[in-house]
UniProtKB/TrEMBL annotation:
Domain Amidohydrolase-related: 252-367
GO molecular function, one term: imidazolonepropionase activity
Organism placement in taxonomy: Bacteria, Bacillati, Actinomycetota, Actinomycetes, Kitasatosporales
Name used for this protein in its record: Imidazolonepropionase
Residues that bind 4-imidazolone-5-propanoate: R83, Y141, H168, Q234, S310
Name of the gene encoding the protein in the UniProt record: hutI
Amino acid sequence: MTATSTAVTGIGSLVTNDPSFSGADNPLGLVRDAAVVVEGDRVVWTGPSSKAPPTDNRVDAGGRALLPGFVDSHSHLIFAGDRGAEFAARMSGRPYTAGGIRTTVAATRAASDAELGAALDRFLAEALRQGTTTVETKSGYGLTVHDEARALRIAAERTPETTYLGAHVVAPEYADDPAGYVDLVTGPMLDACAPHARWVDVFCEEGAFDGDQARAILTAGAARGLVPRVHANQLTAGPGVQLAVELGAASADHCTHLTGADIDALAGSATVATLLPGAEFSTRAVYPDARRLLDAGATVALSTDCNPGSSFTSSMAFCVAVAVRDMGMTPDEAVRAATYGGARALRRTDIGTVAPGARADLHLLDAPGHVHLAYRPGVPLTAAVWQAGELRWRAGHVTLEGAPGGT
Ligand code: NIG
Ligand code: FE
């Protein structure tokens, strides 16, 4: 028996990120007055509404815009505790440092598995309501073998995109023995974490891990089948980006302080530059220069970095708005980076597009076009969200008779 097919028609403006529609003057592969046909968990057809094939069901989008679900390729959501006071102190002039991470480590260790799982569920639901259908998340607030492994186990029950970040900062117990902590991270901690993780990450930064330590950790992870991604050049122009490119990392994240050589290295590689404007916003720091990266030819992703210390937002729309307003990105570039770019950073081809064969992760906006994500900052525009063909969320004022995956 074939799955029921449903056409969503009357889409005012459809972002496909599909090369069969995109071109130099249409980077998002926009289709006006469009339709999308969904069968089961997949998109099977896209194009002009007037050419939509016959389907079992039909639903009218009422001229709204439809986009691929946001791909949030960088977050830190397995934690407990609150650092609102640290944020307030920062807004009165205190600088952000890597050391704040230890505050969250203490609270996370004290939390039960059930508490951490429930908190993660709340964050994932919060992200979904804002159009995010894929979330990568990291360990890094446990820093013991037991606490890192349980963080990743809890995360892996909810998303396939899990990242081992035992090397977030040196655990407090190893304050006088950083080399001993690197041995732990590359030895017993890696053994316990690798079964629950897809990626390995290091905070390569002053106050965290230097280039040699980062190389040892990423190489050990890679030997266990984990693909590297790197917290690189966030606070200073360190060796992180060059290391990420050299090791074939999927992504170099933050990229706030880059040299010309760093930009050239990213542009000449398959390593995605993942920009996290929430971090600069919440630490009152200078934004990364997205324009230089894009003009050089680098692939750019936008992500929230949602975490309790440096960027406590789950809103990809907010990141798009800031990237457009303050980082030199056009609305088209920012929306592409938040969808297709995130998928590239996770080396996924089934998400980040609305194209035949893609997973039916769809984000309906209560707006005529994607530009409104930046044009109407702070306004909750998400009208409905489908994940793998299932209607997972719908705004109270939106009716969708006959919608794929329910009403
Ligand atoms: O990506 N840079 C390292 N980790 C986080 C901050 C974590 C924290 O302050 O708790 C980040 O910004
Ligand atoms: Fe981060």
